[in-house]
Every structure is written in structure tokens, then in C-alpha cells.
Amino acid sequence: MTDFRSLLRPDRGESAHSLHLVDPASFKAWLQSQPLRARAMVEAARFTGKAGEVAILPGDAAEAWSVAVGVADAGTPGRWCLARAAEQLPAGTYRAEGSAGPAAHGWLLAQHRFDRYRKDDGAAGPRILLTQDVRGIEREIGLASAVATVRDLVNTPADDMGPAELEMAVRAAAEGHGAQVSVTTGDALEQGYPMIHAVGRAAARPFAPRLIELTWGDPAHPRVAVVGKGVCFDSGGLDIKPASGMRLMKKDMGGAAHAIALAGLIMAERLPIRLHLLIPAVENAISGHAFRPGDILRSRAGTSVEIGNTDAEGRLILADAITRAVEEEPALLLDFATLTGAARIALGPDLPALFANDDALAADLLSAGTSNQDPLWRLPLWDPYAEYISSDVADLANAGDTPFAGTITAALFLKRFVPAAVPWAHLDLFAWRPSARPGRPKGGEALGLLAAWAMLRGRYDPQKS
């Protein structure tokens, strides 16, 4: 993990290169305030204050240079406005004019590398940012660390990130916080969580399925359940995916990665809740033990489910985990899942689809996403589409015969296992960035994590938020 703590430090007046944040609206006035030699350099660099532009300005001495950074709005720096500068500038110490605020987030993550499998690529040394917002340093380091956790877990290939490794990640998150971790496997899993067992039973023994649970916090505080889909690799099962569809399926545990990172934030910030984290962890493999199209599975809730497609496995394991969560009568239930390709067709890679059975919860999440540059898009739990997952021989089917409304029917499937009295939100996300942006390389990505965290802080610790 990148040492973010060494990259963001309190400004105590030490020598540093200044970062001038300039937007197109303020560019002309700012330029007129600069010395002639700086203006000449700006013109040579064709710097106009557009977001993402960077220009180095000469000073009175060789080491006294500063940097002009183009941003969308210099008055309210965005989360990613310093990311390109952090990628391009040489190693050294820099000072943001005024408070870096949320812009520190992009500065830190622009320097994060997933290098577990690579030799040293000779990247530039650390770019240290000094900030006057001393109280915000720990917050930004924590948020960057949470995003990096998601990226690293998702980027790790399935051979090194199976159910056992997800369990290790949960145990690592629990360390130092007094959390309790329990794991259900084997016969106990088959009897207690039959759909988790059925989906994962075809995998080789080192990838044995399990339900991982973590509990933390004062039992007197409101109980919040966080569930994350942990399909460590998804072949599609007997309804096998094509090679192109299987290529990125190491990321099908992206929901679990988000849930683990969120749990880490909750515990580190000591949010006054009783946390219940649940990770159903499986590999959807192919063997003589694989579950089959046409099988009827009995869920933990007692609901019978006809298997219409073995590649619609995520909703099966989530249903058993959600059933366990609601047995404890949580005040709020939140699940993360890389659940449907239909959500990506509708909304693309950047926008998680949000479903909620509670309008106030949905509004809080949408508002938190907007204010934290981590947007969500709400889709309806349109009950008439429940007919698409009806079954002639079981209580419901995990997949229907129609191509319509795939992400909605998946959410409706999960809704069957959530009591109406429990406020619930479901995030169907991609957990992957198909092309690089400043501070956001191609690969595993946290989407909806900051929105969920801001929502929880706003609800349960409003003074700090």
C-alpha cells in the first residue's frame, strides 16, 4: 500500500514550490499579476487555465520556481483537480495556495501504484503536498487509503484473490479495532446458506465458498449491515461466458472490496454504529459439482429459486447474505455488487445504478454522491417487472427469458429478501475503469464508496461530517 501519510503533511513554513490554482475565468487577471518572465513562460507553454493544464513558472533563483495548475473552479477546488499535476511534476515538496481541501485526494491517488507483479518502473519519487488544513489530513489519507484498498483487491488476479484471501482482507481490516470475525464454511455453509454453497461448490478446495462476517461497535448504537458480493472469479458456470466476457471477471468481487473498504473507514473513524459486514465469497467455477440450469435451490430464507442461468449467480449469494443480515433487524442495509451487465449498458462504467426501498435513503446517497464527486444514478424498483423472474415450479427464478430490464429484475430479486421495514440500498457498480484519467488509472476502481461513506457520516455522525 502506498504510504499516503508521507505525501500529505501540515504546512509549517518549510521551503516548497507554490501551486497556483487558475481557472479560465480568473486567468487574465492572474496573468497580469505575474512577473514578465513568468508571463513569457505561460505564453510559451500555451497555458490558459483550462482544467488539467500545468505550467512551471520561473522564480528569482534556480530552485524558486512555482507551478500554475489549471482547474475548473479555483474558488472550490475539486477532488481531482491536482491529480494531473501530481502525475507530471518532478519529485519534491509543494504548497497549495490556501487549503488543498478535497484536492488532496487526487494528489494522493495519482501517486498510488498497483505494483505487486511489476518490477520498479522508475516512476518519479514522491511529490509531497503541504496543506494548512491540518484537521483534514487524516480524513484525506483515510479516504485515499480506502480507494487504494478497493483498487488493489480488484486488480489482484483470482489465483491470488480467492475466498480465503478475501477472508484475510476482512481479518486485516479488523486488526486494531476490536472487531470480531466469524467464517461459515463446509457442512455449516451448506445447511445454513445453501445458495452460497451451491454457487461455490464447483471450485477447487483452496477456493472453497464461505460467508465471512465482521461485527464491530457498541451494540447499543444503530445497527448498519454492509454486504458485498464476493465472486472471486466468474466463469459463468455451466452457462459459460465467452472468453471476452471472462477476461475481467477477477473484478467480480468488486462489491466485496467496496464493503471491506467502507468497513475500514467506519472503524477507523469510530462511527457510532454497530457494524455488521457480510461477504459471501465464492468462485463460480465449472466441474461435475457445478449447479445446473433448471436446478431448484432452497435459500436461507426458505424461498425456492429456479436456476434459469448459472451466470446470474451474484444475486443468489447476496440473497443468503442479506437474509442473515436482516435477521439482526438492522436500522439500515447497504449492499455493493458488480451485479449486471445491463447496468453498464444503461449507465456506462462511471455511474453505479442505485436502487432503494426508502426515498430518504436514496436522496441522502444521491446528495452525498454529488457533493463528493462520486455520482450515483437511481433506477426504479419497478414491481410490474417482477413477472420476468417468476417461475412455474418455484417461488421465483434467478433469471427470466426476456432481455428487458436486466438490472431492475436483479434488484427486484434481492428485494424479495429484504423486509419492507428495513431501509435498504443496492449499488450495482462496475468496480473498473476501462480507460485512464488523471489520478485514476485503468483497472480496479472505487465507485460509490465515497458517496456511501458521506451518507453514513451525515446520518450517524453529523457534527464531524
TrEMBL record:
SUPFAM superfamilies: Zn-dependent exopeptidases
Keyword annotations of the record: Aminopeptidase, Hydrolase, Manganese, Protease
Domain of life, source organism: Bacteria
EC code: 3.4.11.1
KW Secreted (keyword) present: no
Enzyme class: hydrolase
PROSITE patterns in UniProt: CYTOSOL_AP (PS00631)
Family, similarity comment: Belongs to the peptidase M17 family.
Name assigned to this protein: Leucyl aminopeptidase
Organism field: Sphingomonas jejuensis
